[in-house]
Amino acid sequence: AFLLFDESGNPVPVQTEALSRWSDGSIRWLLLDFQANASENTSAKWEFRLREEGRSPVPVSPIKTHVSENSITVDTGAAVFCVDTRCFRPFTSVKMDGAEYISSENSATVLRGGAGQLFFPFIKSWRFETQGPLRTTIFMSGIFRQQDMKKGESSGLSDFFARIHFYAGHRLTKVEFSIRNPRAAKHPGGIWDLGDKNSIFFKDLAVTVGINPPLHSFREGTGDLNTAWKILPGGKMEQAPQKAKEIVIYQDSSGGENWRSRNYVNKDSVVTTSFRGYRVYEDGKIIENGERANPVVSIGNGGKVVSATLPGFWQNFPKALEARSDSLSIRLFPGQYSGLFELQGGEQKTHTFFLSFGRADNGPLEWTHAQLVPRLKPEYYEKTDLLPRLTPDKSDCHSEYSGLMQGIIEGENSFFNRREIIDEYGWRNFGDLYADHENAYYNGQKPVISHYNNQYDAIHGFLLQYAKSGDPRWFELADDLARHVMDIDIYHTEQDKAAYNGGLFWHTDHYADAATSTHRTYSAKTMRAKGLKHYGGGPSNEHDYTSGLLEYYFMTGNYMAMETVTGLADWVINMDDGRKNPLRFLSRGATGLASQTGAADYHNPGRGCGNSINALLDGFILTNDKKYLDKAEELIRRCINPNDDIESLDLVKDPERRWYYTAFLQILGRYLDFKSERAEYDHMFCYAEESLLNYAGWMAKNEVPFKQMLGVVEYPTETWIVMDMRKSNVFNFAAKYETDEGRRRQFISKAGFFYNTCLKDLDEFETKTLTRPLVMLMSYGIISGYFTRETVGRTEDGGGQQYEFGPPQRFVPQRARAKRRLLAAGMLCCITVLVFLVRWLFLN
């Protein structure tokens, strides 16, 4: 049904997959697979059209697949790949023109444990995740186990997941390989330090491709031996001498000024980096060293060459690429690194590498380190409402806001340069943001080691700015952070309690060093430093951010992002399910963990419930599964009512504990937009609309800029000022849904007031460009331009229906209900004993 054309009007073969649909069933997001070329530092354009009647799609020689008992054969037209379905290698055969390129005997993926034991990746299941004419993807999952020839397979060390991508007409493959520790961490007292009893420790993980025939058969001069490498794209291609038996490129640290950062401590608080940057070894002797490498390595003879590369090589250190006479190895966790690698309970790491087979050009696979970044025009996003309330840069009149945003992607203090402050690199850290704002009230050695963990959904902010401007630097930040969050910040386990399983970890603790907690908030060392007796916790509803990952999936087709969004939506349902809580024997109702904010008894508008509702909406948009929408509406009814006594909530009087109510109201506005797009002006729409307007009316009379309240908060930082942007957004949503013209104009006026006041007051702070305020502004300040131009309110009357909503019903969480029942049971037991004693005394 679709056709694609290049700039010259020539048709281009295309493969499509619908990722999301509008409520009327039409396609909202469509994934396009096509083979594109563009010269360096240039752009190219393609035009996408509906297929005209009578016009056929461009013919293409499709990928062919064949499944046998123990293998899958994939014929791309340029090469024939054979994939083992029993043990991940990844290939047992690669043929071109009938010639075999690899040796199955020397091809293997091996995990070496801390004591030297070997574990192999046995496949439990596999499937074609994508099967099309231009791209086919095989997904595999399994477990690393030891193998005993006499006793069979022994217990496993870790799980693994792999995606192998094949492309029509090409001899290269892309492999995404994840290793996961599925165990639940012990986290005693809510402390998540390295060295946990359920961490796994290992020394090396490598994927090795055997060369056929081994290069030693050419040592007699009967072949043209070629072992070559390039350290950086665009650099010089180096050739190994004929006598060399081994070439190793090993990156030990980031190569930056702070390569010995405290960021790289192990469980014993020892920094594990050994030297600055990378080294190239020839037969064990150092022949080159430098700071940062993104290498490509090729090995073979004549036209029979195998090449490999690993994008993000130095950023995700330690890494190694090794060429030997009989094999090419990609060391994802290289044994050259000092000490052992620790994968915490529920932690995973995904690496992407490319393998190419055939004669190497001058720079094989270089392009993988600077891949094309496709984009739609900002005006297209604006017209289609794909990303709601988006205003292209050229139409946005808010220059103060635009200036702050530009500082994120360029200049000395850009988010790219901020990584250097604490050396936010390495396999566990890269992609996360440095939480530099935590230095303000930190009393230890500075700079503080602090990780942001996608607080306030920075991924969402980056992608909005990318769509708004078209600048690929925004997408780079989003891509790096999304990959980090999906691996490191998600708790990948089903073996802990429902309130934690599959959840998202908080940022590391405020004004404290992360120490050995990595990205998991709470460390015993911080508890001792603060002199606390009670400290700790785990994933919670207040840090459940999904919209950025949803948009990332729509923009990239990354299946892991899709799985992460649905997983976080399921987490909301599971944490609130009283049947999955140990207290279920006393009470089986809702736990309240999905709706509370701060104190366990607060189930009024707050960010905890707001983030839960937002995640559920994203889950529904992704799957169309009504369970997510039903739960979202249950939480709305639980936490807000059109007849709430707002004054009793102390929303303005107690900003320290109640600031987050505007976060909830913003998401309530998103819910109304969701219902409006579906033309569902039903009871729940009216319930939410009346609730929003009730609170907005109260806010118009009572809310003041946060600058006036800094004297009553514990830490009077610039972040409080940015919260005024949320108030502006609430008034904008209220103006959209208010039908009374007088009130609507009042809301519009208040929205403008809080927007301008926020930027004016923020400008008085020298700390206005720290990470947290800028991330908040990215998402919350971006929609004002839309509302400034679009001032028409809602005209629908909800079908003429008038609803009675009744008084608010106070929600009682499971713990409180269980406590009451336990007390009642205890009292009954005491009365029974007392009656028995009285009877015994009088009868005896």
By secondary-structure content and strand pairing, the structural class works out as alpha+beta
> Quick check: average pLDDT?
91
CA-based shape: globular
- Which strand-content bin applies to the residues? 15-25%
Gap between N and C termini, in Å?
Answer: 94 Å
Give me the oligomer status.
Answer: single chain
Number of separate strands: 27
Rg: 29 Å
Helix content: 25-40%
Model regions low in confidence, pLDDT < 50 over at least 5 residues: 149-153, 217-223
Helix count from the secondary structure assignment = 18
What profile does the largest beta sheet have? 17 strands, antiparallel
Structure description:
The protein is of the alpha+beta class and 844 residues long. It has 18 helices and 27 strands. The chain has a 17-stranded antiparallel beta sheet that branches. The chain has a five-stranded antiparallel beta sheet with strand order 6-7-8-9-10, with no helix packed on it. The protein has a three-stranded antiparallel beta sheet with strand order 2-1-5, with no helix packed on it. α4 (458-469) packs antiparallel against α5 and α12 (661-677) packs parallel to α14. The longest helix is centred in the C-terminal third of the chain and has 30 residues, at 814-843. Mean pLDDT is 91; it is low at 149-153 and 217-223.
Name its key features.
single chain, 844 residues, alpha+beta, 17-stranded antiparallel sheet, five-stranded antiparallel sheet, 18 helices, 22% strand, globular
List the helices and strands and how they pair.
Layout: E1 2-5, E2 11-12, E3 15-21, E4 27-33, E5 47-50, E6 64-67, E7 71-75, E8 80-84, E9 91-96, E10 99-100, E11 102-113, E12 118-131, E13 135-148, E14 152-167, E15 172-180, E16 200-211, E17 225-230, E18 238-239, E19 246-251, E20 278-282, E21 285-290, E22 296-301, E23 304-309, E24 319-324, E25 327-333, E26 341-343, E27 348-357, H1 378-384, H2 399-409, H3 415-422, H4 458-469, H5 472-489, H6 524-530, H7 547-556, H8 559-575, H9 607-623, H10 626-639, H11 655-658, H12 661-677, H13 683-702, H14 718-737, H15 741-762, H16 771-780, H17 784-789, H18 814-843
Antiparallel strand pairs: 1-2, 1-5, 3-4, 6-7, 7-8, 8-9, 9-10, 11-12, 11-16, 12-13, 13-14, 14-15, 15-27, 16-25, 16-26, 17-18, 17-22, 19-20, 19-24, 20-21, 22-23, 23-27, 24-25
Helix pairs in contact: 4-5, 4-7, 4-16, 7-8, 8-9, 9-10, 9-12, 12-13, 12-14, 13-14, 14-15, 14-16
